[in-house]
Specification:
The protein is mostly helical. Helix content is 62%, strand content 11%. It has helices spanning 7-18, 21-32, 37-44, 48-60, 80-99, 105-108; strands at 64-69, 72-77. Strands 1-2 form a two-stranded antiparallel ribbon. α2 (21-32) packs across α5. The longest helix has 20 residues, at 80-99. It is globular, with a radius of gyration of 16 Å. The termini are far apart.
Length: 111
């Protein structure tokens, strides 16, 4: 039986997934369309073993699901709203980055 995660747990899982550039690339690729692991590995230029480890993390975080397709397994975002959330986060971060509201940004390399 599935249960709803608390808001904090859901955000923590999402943050963990986004903490790695390869997982970000996988999520962005799956935002475009479902894919097979071999195609994903080729598209983002990582080994299949490395991709498999990241897909396991994304599955454990509840962000991607597997869909049996004959003898193969296809991956897709667990919910289409995740694609919208990725778009929203991407555009929000770009907007903040261009604003550079932190007064020490130039000196400290932050923000």
């Amino acid at each position: 039986m599935l249960t709803l995660a608390t808001d904090l747990a859901a955000l923590t899982r999402f943050g963990r997934a986004l903490a790695d550039p390869i997982r970000c690339r996988i999520l962005l690729a799956l935002r475009e369309a479902p894919a097979y692991p071999s195609d994903l590995a080729d598209a983002i230029e990582v080994s299949r073993t490395r991709l498999s480890n990241h897909l396991t993390c994304l599955r454990d975080c509840g962000l991607v699901v597997t869909v049996p397709d004959g003898r193969r397994t296809r991956y897709e975002l667990a919910d289409e709203r995740l694609g919208h959330a990725l778009d929203d986060l991407r555009t929000a971060v770009v907007a903040v980055e261009t604003d550079r509201t932190c007064p020490d940004a130039a000196d400290k390399g932050c923000c």
